């Protein structure tokens, strides 16, 4: 990450909007934004599959695993403003290939720390898990509020966008898909 270049660019943006980058409240803003970008875009150089080491190769558990309400934030690539929400990740392990529950949350976190679309985030999380663990199936559902719709444009705070990615058995087995969706929606 080229933080010096980010600082110069932020200074230029401040000038372009008519602000004084030397004003007391703004003098350190370019540095703070460069540091923030390093953090919120840390997923750019990271492969999410690295988190999916398999802990149990011989475990005979081949039933549904669901981690729901995983909080995340990401950045809309169209406006560079945040979208925030929660992800629900479910998979059915095959051949004893289980991973740690926190690893599923780490995949969501890694993928979300990039400028992108919610649709891409959802599909990338599903594909990463499906390819790394080779389970019977994966479902990822992401619910998020986009600040580009809240703060500007249509100005509709509270509007939620829901996306899903369905892989493997869940694509063909309606009963299995309905079970997962029921569990995701329980308690709402």
Automatic annotation (TrEMBL):
Binding site for Zn(2+): 76, 79, 148
Protein name listed in UniProt: GTP cyclohydrolase 1
Organism taxonomic ancestry: Bacteria, Bacillati, Bacillota, Clostridia, Eubacteriales
Catalytic activity, as annotated: GTP + H2O = 7,8-dihydroneopterin 3'-triphosphate + formate + H(+)
GTP-binding is among the record's keywords: yes
Class of this enzyme: hydrolase
An MF annotation (GO) of this entry: GTP cyclohydrolase I activity
Pathway: Cofactor biosynthesis; 7,8-dihydroneopterin triphosphate biosynthesis; 7,8-dihydroneopterin triphosphate from GTP: step 1/1
């Amino acid at each position: 990450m080229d933080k010096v270049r980010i600082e110069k660019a932020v200074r230029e943006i401040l000038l372009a909007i008519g602000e004084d980058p030397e004003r007391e409240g703004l003098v350190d803003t370019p540095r703070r934004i460069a540091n923030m970008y390093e953090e919120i875009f840390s997923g750019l150089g990271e492969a999410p599959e690295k988190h999916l080491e398999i802990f149990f190769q011989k475990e005979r558990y081949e039933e549904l695993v669901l981690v729901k309400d995983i909080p995340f934030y990401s950045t809309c690539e169209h406006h560079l403003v945040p979208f925030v929400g929660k992800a629900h990740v479910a998979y059915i392990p095959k051949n004893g290939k289980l991973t740690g529950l926190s690893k599923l949350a780490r995949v969501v976190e890694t993928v979300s720390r990039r400028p992108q679309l919610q649709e891409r985030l959802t599909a990338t999380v599903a594909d990463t898990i499906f390819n790394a663990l080779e389970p019977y199936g994966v479902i990822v559902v992401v619910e998020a509020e986009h600040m580009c719709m809240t703060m500007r444009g249509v100005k509709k705070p509270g509007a939620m966008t829901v996306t899903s990615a369905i892989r493997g058995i869940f694509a063909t087995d309606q009963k299995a898909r309905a079970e997962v969706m029921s569990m995701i929606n329980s308690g709402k």
